[in-house]
# Entry
Amino acid sequence: MSKKFHPLFLALLLTGIAQVNANAQVMAGFENFNLHPGQYLNNAAPDRGFRSGSIELPNFYDPEFNFWSGWAISADTNTTTPGFLNQYSTISGSGALGTSTYCVGYIYDPIVVRLQPNAIGKPMIGMYVNNSTYTYLSVRDGDGFAKKFGGESGKDPDFLLLTIKKYSGGAIDDDSINIYLADYRFPQAQKDYIIKDWTYVDLTILGEVDSLVLRMTSSDVGIFGMNTPAYVCIDQVSTDNLLSASSLDRRAKELVVGPNPASESVFIDVPAKGYCTITTMQGTVQWASNLLPGQHQLSVGDWPRGVYVVSMDGRTATKICLE
# Structure
């Protein structure tokens, strides 16, 4: 059983608690903009931003100068063309989880992910992040404005950092989540990396949120600020419209299984080492294993459809439906 760190959905049944309403979790996947591969959208007018799920992504567009800031929606698939003219694509060539559409943020100044009224003041669950093609190729190869990370020797301690903070109760919180989109600070050059795959970010640790504030910093700066292209891509932004931080605290102490219902894979969050069994409603053992604390992924695509009981050390923890 391999350990994974990319959770998908967390709306499920907990020990001694009724099943959490499936409507509690809302996913912003941006497919609602109906873009075809290769297309992008960087003008939200007359609205102030793009809406999907329970979030709004602010956007400003000036048609006279073809200037935009904030967020753009994209289904661009170009992973090879360097430079500013290819600013709307992600280096993975598609959205997270096999989807086609995602968001591109331009973060020369901090930008915001706003929650809609049904989600304000409640926890966010998570989202996926990735580098844009423009940023990735600039970091890897350098360009007319930015240096190649590592320098000519490959030993320069360069980095590109995405910082996520929450805005709540009228102020930006001191707590933050830091994701290195590129990191060349290792003594061993073979450990240097640039993110090129969608990477899951757990947002539950921020607690109740009104909005997120994203900023970028780089080791490559000039008199006008960052030289590195300040773009980031996000997708599958998951909010929880019902749960409070207190219920999230309970989650951290209990077995969590999701998504529910499931189809191909099940993720099992284990708070402490133990023996996990999954049985049919008739008591037949479908799967069993000793699990260490952490999150584990289980393939269930070939299991018979129906309801299963998940237990830890003989104690029934949750039921999950495969459909």
